[in-house]
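Summary for the funding panel

The consortium committed to producing paired sequence-structure records for every protein in the target list. Below we show the first two records in order, beginning with the earlier of the two.
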Amino acid sequence: MNLKYTNRALVALTIALLGAVQLSADVVETKSGARIVGKVVKVDGGSVVVSTDYAGTVTIKQADVSAITTDEAIAVRLASGTRVEGRVSGTADALQIASRDGTINTSVDKVAASWAAGGKDPQIAALERSWAFEAGVDITGRSGNKSQLGTAANFRATLAGPTDALVFYTGYDRQETDNEVSADQFKAGVDYTNAFSGKYSWYVRNEAGFDRIKDIDFYDVAGAGLGYDFVKSARQTLTGRFGLSFRSENYGNPATEDLNAVGLDLGLNNEIKFKTWSMVNRLSVVPAFNDFGNYRLAHESYAEMPLVSTNWRIRIGLTNDYNSKPGPGIEKMDTGYFTRLVLNWK
């Protein structure tokens, strides 16, 4: 008998706990009669996003919502610009936001956005500039019949806002084969872009460094001009550049004449994001006005995939550096292949 009563008590307690869980959840009802139980993550762009245990993230058109109830306070911005934090309840035409300072009566269609209580308004966050950083390193080696050691490292810092981006970058590559240096190259640069009107932008950039294998003690390439976004979406960005440049190269060999030339600055940048990986292609060509056959071409392409942590990525790609008129005994094209471990953080 005691076991019977104990089982009944356990069943009753389970039902009560399930009921408590049910009561603690947010509820969104639609005009078609659907009832979504979970956690209201946000209201943004005319949609209500709800996180559920049974169906993952569910996105509902705001116009299809007939009622909303939240168990805890959320932050809400109305179409009028009013911002308030409170528990939300009511129907589409009679919505109430119960805050510490009182209750606001509104409607679902007048809710411009919502986010977690205590968080930052996405509209304000979108207007703020923020830093993003990445550092990469790859080391290769071999011993035995041949000895080889290669090291490469790079760093990139980006300060991005809603319409502009300032990028600082640097990189060093050194390779030794049988104690003979086959690569010794350093570069550092800055690039600023400002999208002043729709798909149009202007830019300024400067890159300097050395390449001892190509007998370049110091080089500097400065450019400025206009950019145009042929494709600009959340998935892909394809931007072309057209401007003027000044290219300077100082050679270690006294027999090679140093270069100081004004010319064009042509570029093409393409980035495609897939579900779990991305692909980047960058191309730059700098021909001189006094001799269009004298130009430098720099190219980089790579695919990037996440590792266990989203901050750590593996990058596989290649680079091409082409100088149409190098010094005596120097090859025009240098091609490099790399597999690089990259750390991203903000």
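The next record, for a separate protein in the list, is shown here:
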Amino acid sequence: MKLENIIRTIGYLILMALSVAIYYILHSHFHFILLIIMSIAPVLSIIMVILLRKYTTAEINVLNSDYGVENGILYFEIKLNNPTILTSLDVKLNTTVKNEFFGHETKVKFSVPLNAKKGYTMTIPLEAKLPGRYCVTLDSIEIKDLMGFCFLKKKIDVATDIAVMPELLTDIIYEKSELSQGMLESEESSKKGNDFSDVQEIREYIPGDKLMSIHWKLSAKRDVLMVKDRVSMSDRQLVVLPELSSDSSEYLAAILESTYSMIKILLEDKTTVRLMYWSKKAYQYEEVRIDYREELDAAFARMYYESTYPGMDEAASHMSTVNPHMKSYLHIYVENGKTQIKIKENC
């Protein structure tokens, strides 16, 4: 029990003792009724908070559409549902805000009322200072009885998350001639789900089409399934390999920003991009072909589920062994405090 509740309980007991003394002195019917009310009220207050703890539920949702943007504002909604006619003036919301990719975590506590039959809805603005996958979890709630004698805790454990894309850089300098050296002959990946063919047109879904070819965003807009009709793949593509290093949050953010911005530039130049990164969990390379901006966002959202690793050469160090057929690739890392975007020979 918290000190505040202990003090309140002691004060209430002293008040009851004074009322009992006054009743024995004056023998007043008013003080007798007051004593009965003072005896019943705490019991009713505790019963009410027990019922509230049983029936109150909660949910949490993200209000941003699609993805967030670094240094932008994310909006989360926490909703308490109270189907009863009971109420509480003080409910503590114990929440955790975490950037899962960077491993940054903050505990936040909010205090809100709980209205009868309505509950309560609150919106939480959150500044996304780094890219990554932001997860907001409502761990538990603490409901205070009306007379303030106690808080009853209820474990909730509901969560939602949103992927935040890196900030676009406008000062990236690169030589097209140097990048062209990093182009390689396209090769059909043996991994399930990869398709390295070019998109010729968008058409309506025909039974038998692969689910992976569905253009989900356009389908949602038109309210009918649309698929990407693909033809033969391009004969050249550029492999981009970022280092997902945990050495420094600042360095990792810089690598993500440079990778995201570089791929966007390449897409605008109609260059086929193959994003590869080292998966510490699976101990292998993950790769995805990117033709459109939406595929770039989806690839980063997927990459945020990976774990970072120490060092600035983990991904590059395995390339010659795992992919000996690859002649070169675009390596993005940090050296001497500066982001490096260089074509690296695979030897």
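Regarding this second record: Residues 184-197, 231-235 have pLDDT under 50 and may be disordered. The domain at 56-165 is CATH 2.60.40.10 (Immunoglobulin-like).
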